[in-house]
Specification:
The protein has about 120 residues and is mainly alpha-helical. Helix content is about 55%, strand content about 5%. It has a domain at about 25-95. It has a two-stranded antiparallel ribbon. A hairpin with a 2-residue loop joins β1 (about 5) and β2 (about 10). The longest helix is centred in the middle third of the chain and has 55 residues, at about 25-80. Its main location: nucleus.
Length: about 120
């Protein structure tokens, strides 16, 4: 016998299994490919825009935290010299109206500068 096999009374020829792909119009296939590429580029552009906005917001947050850190360093150096900054006095007395508008205390909102019942910060 040659390469043909008898299965259930039918002769099967060796080769690829499954459905044979239909003859797809080459122009339609190219157009689908182009459309897919356009969509991919659009998704990539949106992803990069999102990431750039995220980086920008993180950089702004870092700048704000650096400014806050510098303010705290100045307060510490002033207290090391025996001076109590007016902002801290205002925090301790609870009188925030005397404080300048530019130096709102984020730490007091976080509860970091609040004094507990036994007088420790």
């Amino acid at each position: 016998m040659d390469d043909n096999k008898m299965v259930g009374g039918k002769v099967k020829k060796p080769g690829k299994r499954g459905r044979k792909p239909a003859k797809i119009d080459l122009k339609a296939k190219l157009e689908r490919s182009r459309q897919s590429a356009r969509e991919c580029r659009a998704r990539k552009k949106l992803r990069y825009q999102y990431l750039e906005e995220l980086v920008s917001s993180k950089e702004r947050a870092i700048c704000a935290l650096r400014e806050e850190l510098e303010m705290y360093k100045q307060w510490c150096s002033a207290m090391d010299q025996g001076k109590i900054p007016s902002e801290i006095k205002a925090l301790l007395t609870g009188d925030e109206q005397k404080m300048p508008q530019g130096s709102s205390t984020k730490a007091s909102k976080n509860g970091k500068n609040n004094i507990n019942s036994n007088g420790q910060g």
